[in-house]
Amino acid sequence: MWLYVAAVLAGLYLLRRWHRERQTVPRLSEKYVLITGCDSGFGNLLARQLDARGLRVLAACLTETGAAQLRAAASPRLQTVLLDVASSQSIAAAAAWVRERVGDRGLWGLVNNAGIANPCAPNEWLSKDDFVKVLNVNLVGLIEVTLSLLPLVRQARGRVVNVASVMGRISLFGGGYCISKFGVEAFSDSLR
């Protein structure tokens, strides 16, 4: 009896999964997505995966080396821009660059992925500047990028994805990282 129930539940789960994977977004090749922090890690992987699916990826990298490596690994559809999320001037320049690219189509997706974790140590070992360095990248930069591009996201009826961490729920070590991720969680809730 329990074996049959388990088999039916497994079958329903597989059917639901198959159905969800079959769903597609119409005119995917016409949609633009900006991803920050694409030099390496999650941002780089996401940029390459979305490019492979046909989206028009605008990949923001901190360094020219990271941008060149990403362009070499992707299709000609993927475009890169240099962006330091801790610099208001860099954010303004990148936002203008994005506006030129997307035109009146707007920005279908914004993925705020850029972030740093160091310095990370017991709080009494750190200075205020150590905290500020991490908060400027992980939280204040994320907020400024979002506010700069929100009109384009609204224009395309798009989505904002803020990459946080489990450290946004529970703080396991000192430094600005956990504090910044708590802030990202709060900003995301208020943005909703």
TrEMBL record:
Q: Which gene encodes it?
A: Rdh16
Q: Which GO MF terms are attached to this record?
A: oxidoreductase activity
Instruction: Please state what the protein is called.
Output: RDH16 dehydrogenase
Tagged with keyword Transferase: no
Q: Which family does it belong to?
A: Belongs to the short-chain dehydrogenases/reductases (SDR) family.
Q: Which residues form the signal peptide?
A: 1-20
Task: Give the species this sequence originates from.
Answer: Psophia crepitans (common trumpeter)
The record's listing under InterPro entries reads:
NAD(P)-bd_dom_sf (IPR036291), Sc_DH/Rdtase_CS (IPR020904), SDR_fam (IPR002347)
Q: Does the record's keyword annotation contain Zinc-finger?
A: no
Gene3D superfamilies xrefs: NAD(P)-binding Rossmann-like Domain
Q: Which PANTHER family match?
A: RETINOL DEHYDROGENASE 16, SHORT-CHAIN DEHYDROGENASE/REDUCTASE FAMILY 9C
Q: Which GO terms are recorded in the biological process aspect for this UniProt protein?
A: steroid metabolic process
Q: Which UniProt keywords apply?
A: Oxidoreductase, Signal
The record's Pfam families line, in alphabetical order, gives:
adh_short
